[in-house]
Design brief:
This protein has 10 helices and no strands. It is an all-alpha fold and 200 residues long.
């Protein structure tokens, strides 16, 4: 019986080792193919290359190259750069720099970036927090996420922008005076109208 169990264990280890080698080879091939497309200007590929560098998939882990490729990804990378700087993952924490990247992504219509930017203001993590500005972005995150359907395909977006999971929108709503909320709502309505006109 012992020999049978040992044989099964040895076979399983050999199989796992072979699968890991195949995964590694596949990852390296995918990295190089994606990198080529990114070099040709594909922004989606650039965002994937950045992730590969961040996670060390198919290549050596290199956070500096990840930042470079997220920059090249433009609107496909700005939210992720915002997260890196907001959380201090692989870069020095810098909430104001995070806010700048979130703003770029939010201006491009990303509901999750809108929510993250609003939370930075709500939680007073930026150098000059502005509750009205924060509440405007939090309202826009909900409006854009619900209207575009973008959040229906993305769990984190749904939890944050739609359901207000950390409670930034609710907290800021109760902290602002009625006239401040009205101003934030007016600004949000103006942005929504401008986005609507730009789509025509």
């Amino acid at each position: 019986m012992r020999w049978g169990a040992a044989l099964v264990l040895a076979t399983a280890l050999v199989t796992l080792s072979a699968c890991a080698e195949l995964d590694y080879e596949r990852n390296v091939k995918t990295f190089h193919e994606t990198h080529r497309r990114a070099e040709e200007g594909d922004q989606g590929a650039a965002a994937r290359v950045a992730y590969f560098y961040r996670a060390g998939i198919g290549t050596e882990r290199d956070p500096e190259k990840a930042v470079y490729w997220y920059e090249r990804a433009n609107e496909r990378g700005w939210f992720w750069l915002g997260n890196m700087y907001a959380e201090g993952r692989d870069v020095q924490r810098d909430p104001d720099r995070a806010a700048a990247y979130y703003l770029k992504a939010a201006d491009a219509g990303d509901p999750l970036a809108m929510y993250s930017l609003g939370c930075l203001h709500a939680e007073r993590k930026v150098a000059v927090p502005d509750g009205v500005e924060g509440y405007m972005w939090l309202r826009l995150a909900y409006a854009r996420g619900a209207a575009s359907g973008a959040c229906s395909r993305h769990i984190e977006c749904d939890n944050r922008a739609i359901k207000d999971a950390p409670g930034c929108r609710k907290g800021l709503e109760s902290a602002l005076k009625p006239e401040q909320r009205a101003e934030a709502e007016r600004r949000a309505d103006e942005r929504l109208a401008a986005w609507s006109r730009s789509k025509k």
